[in-house]
Amino acid sequence: MQATVKWVDGAMFLGESGSGHSVVMDGPADHGGRNMGVRPMEMVLLGLGGCAAFDVMSILRKARQAVSDCRVALEAERAEGVPSPFTRIHLKFVVTGTGLKETQVKRAVELSATKYCSASIMLEAGGVEISHSYELVEA
Question: What contacts 8, CB < 8 A, 6 or more positions away?
Fold first, then answer.
């Protein structure tokens, strides 16, 4: 896997993935930015959410669950001072569908957290406390 990050100006950077997709990252005005993109640590949080949601949906599709929507809300806490790494992150999955089986959703979330989500496993190995919950919504 490869990526490049190029400085644009101020606190703005353009990241490009090895697959050719780009994202703008920028800082707040008090750090020389113009608030024109996500912060780098927000990218880490979004990456975790995307990784976990990808796993959960993949597992639920294989279990033939009729999912019409899947969202994951992430809440994170960071350490005071510099550096300020994440200390805690909670992922709450809201899975909408028809006739969803709670056991299947619970299993998908657990498998993502303990076996499949590389981002989650990496962050936990680095000392981040990660918790998960889920809610089922009938479509």
Answer: 14, 24
CATH annotation of 1-38:
2.20.25
pTM of whole model > 0.90?
Answer: yes
- Cβ neighbors of 30 (< 8 A, separation 6 or more) are none
- H or E element at residue 61: helix 40-62
The residue to which tokens 């056991």 are assigned: 103
Q: How confident is the model at residue 117 (pLDDT cuts 50, 70, 90)?
A: very high
Q: Which amino acid is present at 2?
A: Q
What is 40-138's CATH superfamily? K homology (KH) domain (3.30.300.20)
Rounded CA-CA distance 55/62 in Å is 11
